[in-house]
């Protein structure tokens, strides 16, 4: 279902679509794949960077500064998680560029230069507020069918949805929103370019609905704790992956609770 790629070059801009450079941060991991994708985009207003990446990768940072070139214009953020946002304060200090984030941006310690709302256009990109993975998550759509999807849709794996900031009901609603669009290419926050993304996003949503059905099937035979439900449904042995699976299970249960399809009493979940 998912798509892999060889270990990508580091600290170097690689063109992945017309007027778009991808630079992959050197922060590989079980939740980040080869690393965070930062994208430098030629726009009518100058060059913008989407998601400068983690604070710790100085070579990545310098590659961004170099590739922004002589006409840099701004910094766009898909969401506040540190593997995307970490380098933003230093990049603004170094370049003086304005930083634009979602109106739902939760970090009170950082004051952005502009807040973006759903449907707004900035530098020729249409803002899509796509909460689910994070409450402030944004995608950015270019008129030619290129969509920057951040962590809402990744090509290498499904996204973790971890309450309380993550919300499975919102996430599934926003997956359906992307299905209803006609994007030609998705550029994710981690992993390779995703071409013809519609069928892939349909599979992502179908997989979430399958997990939901498995949770309900488990509860139809026994009331249980979150931990036992996650172990039964996801069957993950790696402790890091098991933890992520448990957070996804929690998000599914919160969604089902909001729909009055399950109830919870002192940590035990059951059908009504």
UniProtKB/TrEMBL annotation:
SUPFAM superfamilies: Metallo-hydrolase/oxidoreductase. CDD domains: metallo-hydrolase-like_MBL-fold. SMART domains: Lactamase_B. It comes from Paracoccus solventivorans. This is Glyoxylase, beta-lactamase superfamily II. Residues 35-190 form the Metallo-beta-lactamase domain. PANTHER family: ENDORIBONUCLEASE LACTB2. Pfam families: Lactamase_B, WHD_BLACT. InterPro entries: LACTB2_WH, Metallo-B-lactamas, RibonucZ/Hydroxyglut_hydro, Sec-metab_biosynth-thioest, WH-like_DNA-bd_sf. It comes from the Bacteria.
């Amino acid at each position: 279902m998912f798509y892999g790629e060889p270990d990508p070059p580091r600290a170097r801009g690689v063109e992945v679509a017309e007027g778009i450079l991808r630079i992959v941060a050197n922060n590989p991991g079980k939740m980040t794949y080869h690393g965070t994708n930062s994208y430098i985009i030629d726009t009518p207003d100058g060059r913008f960077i989407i998601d400068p990446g983690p604070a710790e990768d100085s070579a990545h940072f310098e590659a961004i500064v170099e590739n922004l070139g002589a006409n840099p214009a701004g910094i766009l953020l898909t969401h506040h998680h540190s593997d995307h946002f970490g380098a933003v304060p230093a990049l603004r200090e170094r370049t003086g560029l304005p930083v634009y984030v979602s109106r739902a941006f939760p970090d009170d310690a950082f004051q952005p230069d502009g807040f973006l709302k759903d449907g707004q256009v900035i530098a020729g990109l249409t803002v899509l507020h796509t909460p689910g993975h994070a409450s402030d998550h944004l995608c950015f759509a270019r008129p030619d069918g290129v969509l920057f999807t951040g962590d809402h849709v990744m090509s290498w794996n499904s996204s973790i949805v971890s309450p309380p900031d993550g919300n499975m009901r919102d996430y599934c609603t926003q997956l359906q929103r992307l299905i209803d669009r006609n994007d030609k290419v998705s550029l994710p926050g981690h992993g390779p370019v995703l071409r013809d993304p519609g069928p892939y996003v349909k599979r992502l949503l179908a997989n979430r609905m399958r997990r939901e059905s498995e949770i309900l099937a488990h509860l139809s035979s026994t009331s249980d704790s979150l931990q036992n439900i996650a172990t039964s449904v996801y069957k993950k042995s790696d402790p890091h992956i098991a933890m992520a699976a448990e957070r996804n299970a929690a998000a599914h249960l919160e969604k089902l609770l909001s729909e009055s399809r399950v109830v919870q009493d002192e940590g035990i979940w059951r059908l009504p």
